[in-house]
Amino acid sequence: MNLYQRFRSRFPSDLDRTFAEMPDGRTWSYAALDEESARMATVLLRAGVRPGDRVVVQVEKSAQAIALYLAVLRVGAVFLPLNTAYTLAELEYFLTDAEPSLVVCAPERSGPISGLARKASGATVLTLAADGTGTLSERARSAEPAAECVARAEDDLAAILYTSGTTGRSKGAMLTIGNLWSNAVTLERAWGFEASDVLLHALPIFHAHGLFVALHCTLASGCRMILLPKFETEAVMRALPRATVMMGVPTFYTRLLEVPEFDRDLCRGIRLFVSGSAPLLAENWLRFKERTGHEILERYGMTETAMNTSNPLEGRRVPGSVGPALPGIEVRVVDETGRPLPTDAVGMLEVRGPNVFKGYWKMPEKTAEEFRPDGFFVTGDLARIDSDGYVYIVGRAKDLIITGGYNVYPKEVEDAINAIEGVAESAVVGIPDADFGERVIAVVRPETPDTVLDEAEIIRDLKARLAGYKVPKRIVFRSELPRNVMGKVQKNVLRSWLTEGAG
Questions:
Q1: DSSP readout, 97-108?
Q2: Mean pLDDT within 372-378
Q3: Three-state SS at 258
Q4: Of 94, 117, 152, which marks where a domain is finished?
Q5: What are the tens digits of pLDDT across the range 241-284?
Q6: Most buried residue, 157, 190, 392, 449, by most Cβ within 10 Å?
Q7: What's the rounded Cα separation, in Å, for the pair 202 and 199?
Q8: Contacts from 343-346 at CB under 8 Å and sequence distance 24+?
């Protein structure tokens, strides 16, 4: 069946039940979600969207944005969400590479994005604002609801999510209907979701965590969610007493711990706190348990695979571990030759299961590199697995930085810094941060000893060209960067130097 039809089969029998509650008290029923997505599907069809076409979406979070996602599934197209912080320079690459037939963006960006879309693929551009207005919703109001969903097969694409690479070129991870549905059902069961649950949703929906984990658990169980535009401590505190489940990145939980009023009484109705997208410090896990009585459930996933492992709903949750493999999914740790390693040995983590993506968009060679002959996907993360099957992520083979739940690849940031006048070279690293998980720091070597560079000016320059979360929190200047005998910059030395406070 079409992926939307699968979710539709899990909706409450009474479609008048609430699907989403907004901060201002307005609600959307499952009936409204069903009808709005059907009307939007008609708009997409009239705009020429056909099965397999890519629909690029860069809009703020709203109930209408969720309806748009479901409308794309209804017509059998491929949903391609983009971070709302991406600049026009970054968007040009995505539009050129994905060749979409339709782009949906915020009204205020429609002018420049229309120019990029015409140049890239001749795509139609529609708009959708945070308040639900825009040309897409205007057309949907007068459209007849699409009567049927386009039939799709298990292996057909449902979404493409771009994930950056160490070379600086982003890769489009192709996720099939089977990938997304299998993971949704697995998580709904593993985490005990029921129709009576209320999910506190403060995550972005352009990211796998907010879209394929939080939203899919809601749709697969027919429960209700409190839809917050973003994480704001006061808004989350107000919503917590009405919720039963909260999903977040570690930053959410560290921010809550900063508030004295955040206590056991406020969390009395919560049955489950889930954390992911970045490592949660064991210290903060223990602080959270002491303050609230709740053990945060940590899990591990990737854009390419959705969720792979999870601490158990019932049973031992281990701080610092992301738990054992989820049902139907296999994980293993191997050496550089691909040979499985014994218990507690550190090596490359690999995963196999129905959740693992189809490959990288228009990158068959890269896809082949990332899969073993027996079907295991090479995650790029270093890990160990204990005797009970619990996985511990100990580092990343690649220089990926995860800050506030978002991935930052140093090469892209370094290229932007190196283009600035007076910069000879740079090295970008992540250092531990109690709030964001990791903090992005750039170490810069000026062209000459007499070259004067200003930290604030460099940061200001980068903010105009990169999404905010990629911009270094600090710029540190050094006359030389440490190198090995092959001339490669030793980032491990820089991390130690910065972490120990010398920087």
A1: HH--SEEEE-GG
A2: 96
A3: coil
A4: 152
A5: 999 999 999 889 989 999 999 999 999 999 999 999 877 878 88
A6: 157
A7: 9
A8: 343/385, 343/386, 343/387, 344/384, 344/385, 344/386, 344/387, 345/384, 346/382, 346/383, 346/384, 346/394
**Residues 177-199: pLDDT tens digits?**
999 999 999 999 999 999 999 99
Task: Count CB atoms within 10 A of the CB of residue 345.
Answer: 13
Between residues 15 and 405, the one the model is more confident about: 15
Indicate the number of domains in the chain.
Answer: 2
Distance of CA 433 to the CA centre of its chain: 19
128 within a domain of the structure (yes/no): yes
Query: Which band of pLDDT confidence, cut at 50, 70 and 90, is reported for residue 167?
Result: very low
Please report, as a single letter, which amino acid is at residue 413.
Answer: V
For residue 65, give its domain range. Answer: 1-15+28-152
Which residues have C-beta within 8 Å of that of residue 157, sequence separation ≥ 6? 52, 78, 174, 175, 176, 177, 358
CATH, residue 131: 3.40.50.980
**Residue 393 falls within a domain, yes or no?**
no
> Which single residue is written with the structure tokens 């549905």?
181
Q: Which region, left, alpha or beta, applies to residue 363 given φ > 0 means left and ψ of -120 to 50 means alpha?
A: beta
Q: Token pair for residue 120?
A: 């890239």
Which of 107, 135, 152 terminates a domain? The answer is: 152
Look at residue 478 and tell me if it is in a domain: yes
Tell me, yes or no, whether 6 lies in a domain: yes
What CATH code is carried by the domain that includes residue 493? 3.30.300.30
Which ranges of 99-225 would DSSP assign to H, the alpha helix?
110-120, 135-141, 177-190, 208, 216-221
Compute the distance between CA of residue 307 and CA of residue 355 in angstroms, rounded to an integer: 8
